Amino acid sequence: MGCRVPLWPCVLLHTWLSVAGYQASLGFGTYQNGPWVTSSYAWMNFTIVAFSAWTVGQRNIKENCLILIISLFLGVIFDIVFLALYEKGFDCINNDVACGRGWSEFLWSFIMAVLNTMCKIIPGCCISDILKLLGR
Questions:
Q1: Whole-angstrom Cα distance, residue 25 to residue 103?
Q2: What's the pLDDT band for 114 if we cut at 50, 70, 90?
Q3: Range with the lowest mean pLDDT among 1-15, 53-67, 115-129?
Q4: 13, 34, 45, 25: which is closest to 108 by C-alpha?
């Protein structure tokens, strides 16, 4: 049957969610206690965005599809690790996290990071179908 979803909307969604997930760490808001995730989170997600854009541009090459599937799989695993490690900083009362505009931006960033992790499954399924078609 195959995946009928074009890949480029998935890439745009992943790009937007990657930026929104890392937004509180970039210092756009008033959160003063430092970044909630390390810069390796951004490097990993934006590398996956680059691999995705490369695969959209050249989707007839099996190696591109394989690299993207592997990077999406590793990205989901590392996102789960990052979110599990840094989730403990969300206690507004006990950990002296700014509970105002900075708190809402912090929570927004965390929710977008979780959505980013969940949405990595969709392009992975589409790319696996493309890889099956290229394998013939």
A1: 12
A2: confident
A3: 1-15
A4: 25
Taking the C-alpha atoms of residue 2 and residue 106, their distance in angstroms, rounded to an integer, is: 38
Residues 41-56, buried b or exposed e (16+ Cβ, 10 A)?
A: bbebbeebbebbbebb
Mean pLDDT over 105-130 rounds to 82
Cα–Cα separations (whole angstroms), residue 57 to 4, 71, 122: 17, 17, 18
pTM: 0.75
Both tokens of 11, joined, read 């890439």
Query: Which residues 6+ apart lie within 8 Å of 40 measured at CB?
Result: none
DSSP assignment, residue 1? -
The Cα 25–Cα 3 span in angstroms is 35
How is residue 12 written in tokens? 């745009």
The gap between the terminal CA atoms of the chain, to the nearest Å, is 15
Backbone angles phi, psi at 69, to 5 degrees: -65, -45
Structure tokens at 101: 């505009």
